[in-house]
Amino acid sequence: MRHVLIADVEDQPGVLNRIASLFRRRAYNIESLAVGHSHRPGISRMTIVVAEDHKEAIQVAKQLDKLIEVISVTDVTEQRHVSREMALAKIAAPEMKRTEILQLANVYRAQVVDVSPGSIILEVTGDEDKIDSFVEIIRPYGILELSRTGEVAMVRGRAMPAPTLMAEDGPAA
Predict the structure, then answer these.
(1) Where are the alpha helices (DSSP H) in 28-80?
(2) Yes or no: domain 82-152 corresponds to CATH 3.30.70.1150
(3) Is the pTM value of this prediction over 0.90?
(4) DSSP secondary structure of 95-107
(5) Please, are residues 8 and 44 in contact by the beta-carbon 8 Å criterion?
């Protein structure tokens, strides 16, 4: 099962490396990692997606929370949340195919961000399924480059609830 973790961390050099090292040492695979500044100065927000069972995801969150630079970690998987991903796709676009490509872009509400003689760059935002579907539908035209941001998430409602780290059977060893 995929778990979506949100971590608020100090915005300092080396924090991302320490977090990635924690995952490497524990042999956990990161499916997606997005990090950027938050609304609070000096604090960055990370959205980390891991493919682990519930017990393993709790362990990951507890291990993250032990790092000095980590302020809080919340598993939002089972909470009502909004998540999005953004992709930029450079597509081979000879003049005779551009109308077709632009029609597909319109269906996916993709934005044209660059046009050159032999290609078009499209930006599309949505959940993982929408991005995957978009990529498959444009693949026959020839994807020259593709870049995806990874998932970012936010709990619905007024404020994010307190960090959710504890398992029913007590603290991690």
Answers:
(1) 54-66
(2) yes
(3) no
(4) GGGHHHHHHHHHH
(5) yes
